[in-house]
Design a protein that fits this description.
Elements: H1 3-8, E1 13-18, E2 22-28, H2 32-44, E3 48-59, H3 65-73, E4 102-108, E5 116-119, E6 124-125, E7 138-142, E8 148-157, E9 168-175, E10 181-188, H4 194-220
Antiparallel strand pairs: 1-2, 2-10, 3-8, 4-6, 4-8, 5-7, 9-10
Helix pairs in contact: 2-4
Length: 221
Amino acid sequence: MDFEDFVQDLSSLEIITKDNQKMSVKINGVPLQYTNALRRVCLNGVPVFAIDTVDIIENSSVLPDEGLAHRLGLIPIKTDLTRFNEPSKCECQSESGCSNCKVMLVLDSGDSDTTRTVLSSELSSEDDSIKPISDKIPIIQLAPGQRIKVECYARLGRGTEHAKWNSSNISMLTETDKEDERILTIESTGALSPEQIILAGVDEVNKRLGEFNDMINQIEE
């Protein structure tokens, strides 16, 4: 079976275990190079949202601006691939982006008289579908009198550009006792469901193989 047959007949995938974060599927009759390509794409080739730009309006904490921006960038963000474009593929073709390729999130900790931890629940998004995967992710601890106020801009990206855009934490391929049978295990960061990662990964590998085939045809001509 080649990869096109695999794409057209997803019965090649047999679900072994599945929950909201992790999924294992058995793949039959697909050459190793295709299944390994799918594993790699599921790890860092499927686009997800992450905070990319942070405008620091106020930061009186002990953490430098760069450290605060780094922490915000590593917060996994729920992703909707049906409504948003990667900036390079968006019709706006603007460095500043538009509502189809960029989402703003804001955070204002306010003033406090006590030491407290600022959590991801305080990040307010202009789009309800694009927000942190959890309300309980610690961002920074503030002492009395300290405050942070930021405007963040999230966009789609891929893990090949930066690890914060990795769609999964684990992407493993293991052999079974049967020939041409392997188990692919995907553990999502939460930005996408494991099913969405695998399906998007299949589409991406098929697209790349098509582009490579077109390049070979052009060379032969």
